[in-house]
Design brief:
single chain, Nucleoside Triphosphate Pyrophosphohydrolase, 9-stranded mixed β-sheet, 163 residues
């Protein structure tokens, strides 16, 4: 909502894809903002004329060298900055490392690492990751829907429910 003198805050459409290989997932330690220095799933902007699924597959290939055969949508998160009013709509996918695929290739985006799921909470990760990981790798076919409020990159509160 605006009073006419302020421009509406930006909305950013993004994807994340957690690639599983046995009991491990592939994480990227980001070299650049947002989340610089933190471990996160590969992903990025949804480009013009792309849907979230296409963007997910493209971003995974660009950031890891892996060509996923398919990915499953597991969550849609809205992250709202109380500081700027901007919001990010995150389409969160999971995929399996294709059999015979080459090892991931590090790119300019950051270093890649296969991390056991049980060790993810021990790493510096964005605050939403520990909230959503339990849902992403369950057999429950539902999609997690969430709204997360942050202030200066600190999680303030959140609401999550299964759709």
């Amino acid at each position: 909502m605006t009073d006419g003198s302020l421009r509406p805050a930006a909305t950013h459409l993004r994807t994340l894809c957690f690639i599983q290989y046995g009991d491990r997932i592939l994480l990227l330690q980001r070299r650049y903002p947002p989340n610089q220095g933190l471990y996160n799933a590969p992903g990025g902007k949804i480009e013009r004329d792309e849907d979230p699924y296409e963007a997910c597959l493209r971003e995974v290939h660009e950031e890891t060298g892996i060509r996923l055969r398919k990915a499953r949508l597991r969550a849609i998160l809205t992250v709202i900055s109380r500081t700027t009013g901007a919001q990010w709509i995150l389409f969160v996918f999971v995929g399996d490392r294709p059999p015979g695929s080459p090892d991931p290739v590090a790119t300019d985006e950051g270093a890649l690492r296969w991390v056991p799921l049980s060790e993810v909470p021990l790493l510096p990760v964005p605050a939403d990751i520990p909230l959503i990981l339990p849902h992403l790798f369950t057999p429950d076919p539902g999609i997690l829907i969430g709204k997360i409020h942050a202030e200066e990159d600190v999680l303030v509160d959140y609401e999550l429910h299964n759709a």
